[in-house]
Design goal:
331 residues; alpha/beta; Rossmann fold; 6-stranded mixed beta sheet; 10 helices; 10 strands; binds pyridoxal-5'-phosphate
Length: 331
């Protein structure tokens, strides 16, 4: 394993805990799978979430290259943008967020509260793009303009999902594997949200590296299964290329798109049911865009028997809590 530079941004290891009351709530005839949770909502950086791990590699790369600011993209309520702004603040870097107003039909608080409020408090410069604009082209132009102005910008793709960012979830999977070993617990399934794909790809790379007999179910929050599978597979290849490793066999990339509903950031009845169930059985808060839909996917997999009563499933909580405050009308 190649050793790469990281800065410290996340509180690690994150807890790995059982959810017995949720398991009981999903039991049929007194039988249910053991449901455990990996608490990456507790990574600590400006409210926690999965991007803290990715940013440990990405910010190290930026600092090493002499960057004086971070530039990234996302939706108005991007958790990735929030944690990037926080990481920039921690390292004395500037931060420019190119945020696309892409989620239709949202209430007033979507544009004033939640992550949007936190981006501003964290001191990021924000440029809002219309859904019709070509955000990738604008990002490229912005990088050129900033460089011409004498700045040294470092670009982080949406979700921090390139090979280097995704590598952090290879490390996270190895962290989980060690915790499961300490607990004497075999993991049969992992369920997580799949957005820009880096978290899913890193976990798959880790599962392959550790040789775990474990299925990884990505629950898509935006794309079709086929589109998301192609993105995740590409990122797994990028991780292996970074590590200078050959892949003989490719683990199955499983993405379930049954929970997307009307689209990215659009609430569904199953998300609301799953989010309230976890809050009311375990006192754990999920978010409406990512983890709520992923938990709806887990509930559905248990109900249809794809996760069997004698198996163990780990729900990977990737954070996103501030997003709840952008959706008060939904609950
Ligand atoms: C809370 C939360 N969970 C999951 C994801 C999805 O992770 P990835 O983009 O690596 O697929 C994101 C991405 O922004 C997120 O903010």
């Amino acid at each position: 394993m190649t050793q790469r530079d990281k800065v410290r941004l996340a509180i690690l290891p994150t807890p790995f805990e059982p959810l017995p009351r949720l398991s009981q709530a999903l039991s049929r005839n007194g039988r249910a799978p053991a449901i455990w949770i990996k608490r990456d909502d507790c990574t600590g950086l400006a409210g926690g979430g999965n991007k803290a791990r990715k940013l440990e590699y990405l910010v190290a790369d930026a600092v090493k290259g002499g960057a004086d600011m971070l530039v990234t993209m996302g939706a108005l309520q991007s958790n990735h943008a929030r944690q990037t702004a926080a990481a920039a603040a921690r390292h004395g870097l500037g931060c420019l967020l190119l945020l696309t107003d892409s989620v239709a039909d949202r209430g007033e608080t979507y544009r004033t509260n939640g992550n949007w409020l936190l981006h501003r408090i964290l001191g990021a410069e924000i440029r809002v793009l219309a859904a019709s604009e070509d955000s990738a082209a604008i990002a490229a132009e912005t990088m050129t303009d900033l460089t011409a102005q004498g700045r040294r910008p470092y670009f982080i793709p949406i979700g921090g999902s390139n090979g280097l960012g995704s590598l952090a979830y290879r490390d996270a999977l190895l962290e989980l594997a060690a915790q499961a070993k300490d607990e004497g617990r075999r993991i049969d399934h992992i369920v997580l949200p799949t957005g820009s794909g880096g978290t899913h790809a890193g976990i798959l790379a880790g599962v392959e590296e550790a040789g775990l007999p474990c299925r990884v179910h990505g629950i898509s929050v935006s794309r079709s299964s086929e589109q998301a599978q192609a993105i995740v597979s590409g990122l797994v290849q990028d991780i292996f290329a970074l590590e200078g490793r050959q892949r003989d066999t490719m683990a199955a990339v499983e993405v379930d798109d049954s929970q997307v509903g009307p689209g990215y950031g659009q609430p569904t009845a199953a998300m609301i049911e799953a989010l309230e169930l976890v809050a009311r059985t375990e006192g754990i808060l999920l978010d409406p865009v990512y983890t709520g839909k992923a938990m709806a996917g887990l509930v559905s997999l248990v109900r249809i028997g794809a996760i069997a009563p004698d198996e163990t499933v780990v729900f990977w909580h990737t954070g996103g809590l501030p997003g709840l405050f952008a959706y008060p009308e939904v609950f």
